[in-house]
Amino acid sequence: MKNLSWQTSQGSRIVRVGVVRSACYAVETGDGRRYLIDTAVPGERAAIEAQLERLGFKALDAILLTHAHGDHAGNAAAWSRRFGCPVYAPAGEVGQVRAGRCVLPAGATPLGAAVMAVQRRLHVCETFEPVPDVRPLPLGEGVFGPHLGVVATPGHTECSASIVVDGEAALVGDALIHRGRSVFPPFADRPEQVGDAWRVLLGTGAETFLCAHGGPVERALLERSLAALERPGRRPRA
């Protein structure tokens, strides 16, 4: 699959890499800093490294994890060594990344619950290589220079975060999962907080929301999804 890429009005470039199991995003900001948002699973390591090589990413300023699950943190330790860069994870999940063992989410929908039951039996994405020196991911605007901001978007996990590039695009991890017409994450520890996270994302002013699973979500779709979620008696769809 070809890389999907986005360019902001302030000169930042975002490229989606690793799209088989879980996508991650290479970001080059307008001031030349380079970041990797999430790291996919070890089985995709060689393919993603080849993509990064083609993009000219021979060094990284940091690896930023949206949350601690193995399909997002699976290559963090290896790439921290390879690129000589620090790893940041949401403060409440640093311990999981440091230990290389995460707490798998509950199913927020009937389908999600069935899938998670299978994953727990098979221990899929439950363990990964520990990252001993992981750092807490700071929240706020401009925390990694003038082009990047970080906002808390709990729901999928209690401490999930999203990375906002130039106020135009948000890298949301699993705060959204775009399958068909639905963007509601079918796996979530705090499903009651998903709507709050969506309001935070819309409040950033971003027009495009880039997921780890599924295609990009445009602002109008997220607004419609939030309105539908907030209707009385509305149940989320997988």
Account of the 3D structure:
This protein has 238 residues and is an alpha/beta fold. The strands form two sheets. Strands 1-2-3-4-5-6-7 form a seven-stranded mixed β-sheet. The protein has a six-stranded mixed β-sheet with strand order 8-9-10-11-12-13. A hairpin with an 8-residue loop joins strand 9 and strand 10. The protein is globular. The mean pLDDT is 91.
Question: Characteristics of this structure?
Answer:
single chain; 238 residues; alpha/beta; 7-stranded mixed β-sheet; 6-stranded mixed β-sheet
Helices and strands, with pairings:
Layout: E1 4-7, E2 13-17, E3 24-28, E4 34-37, H1 45-55, E5 62-64, H2 70-73, H3 76-83, E6 87-90, H4 94-99, H5 110-122, E7 135-137, E8 140-141, E9 148-152, E10 161-165, E11 169-173, H6 194-203, E12 208-211, E13 217-218, H7 219-229
Parallel strand pairs: 4-5, 5-6, 6-7, 11-12
Antiparallel strand pairs: 1-2, 2-3, 3-4, 8-9, 9-10, 10-11, 12-13
Helix pairs in contact: 6-7
